[in-house]
Design brief:
By secondary structure, this protein is α+β, with helices and mostly antiparallel strands. Helix content is about 25%, strand content about 20%. The strands form 4 sheets. Strands 1, 2, 7, 8, 9, 10, 11 and 14 form an 8-stranded antiparallel beta sheet that branches. The chain has a two-stranded antiparallel ribbon with strand order 3-4. A hairpin with a 6-residue loop joins strand 3 and strand 4. The longest helix has 15 residues.
Length: about 290
Amino acid sequence: MAPRGGTYAKAIMLAAMLAAGCEAIAEPYAWRTVATPTADRLEQRFAPPEGFVRVVAPEGSFAAWLRGLPVKPEGAPVLLHSGLPKWRQDVHAAVIDIDTGARDLQQCADAVMRLRAEWQFARGDVRRIAFNDTGGGKPMPFSRWAVGERPRAEGRALIWGKRASADASYASFRRYMDTVFTWAGTHSLERELIAVRDGRVEIGDVIIKGGFPGHAVLVADVVEHRATGERRFLLIQSFMPAQDMHVLKGRDTPDGSPWYRLEPGQAFVTPEWIFPPGSHRRWATGTGPG
């Protein structure tokens, strides 16, 4: 009998998870090598504006996971994938403590997909980790990657075939995400998200304009006014070239407040992009309570 260790055991574990639908227990922020102190989390760094309270985020949800994201110490600069500082250091209110990678891959839509997939990986929901490619609009599932399949371009299509050993580890997942960044972007992501028509913003929503180039930002937290019900929210972005994910400052507020609000039917303005009306999207599986 083959020894149950290394990549073999991981492949067996993944197969069992996929077959039985059970969830694996993993660290909530798998890229971290040390635990994140409470004071260094997103929700601790940004207090709600006066009169506002945070909306409910069920334990284990994407919303709760985003609120707990680790952030670097105050004053940390945004660095490019090369390690050099971004030319603009005036648009961020905090830097998310997550790797960018050494290549120019993890840009705007890539950061959105990375955070969504990291949450799914951490909760063991590996069957749902999949993003559509730009050329053919077909899913690129981690479940295929984990058993050793790899995509190869043939014309506008990606053809999958067995080209590697099975590996469901986090390191393998991270390599999978780099492949997703190569073949997906704002054009594909916009089309797999659902348009939000009522203007009600939920944690995990995406403001996106697909294109070449396009841009995307992710709603990382939402607060609601006790009396009026008005909602405001924090935004995370990466940009071009690949750079640290960061929480955006407001563009038109005197104090640069990071708490944005969405005006239905109007353009949505951030420091480095203006999104046209109708750019509000949501994951097909839902992100508010789930």
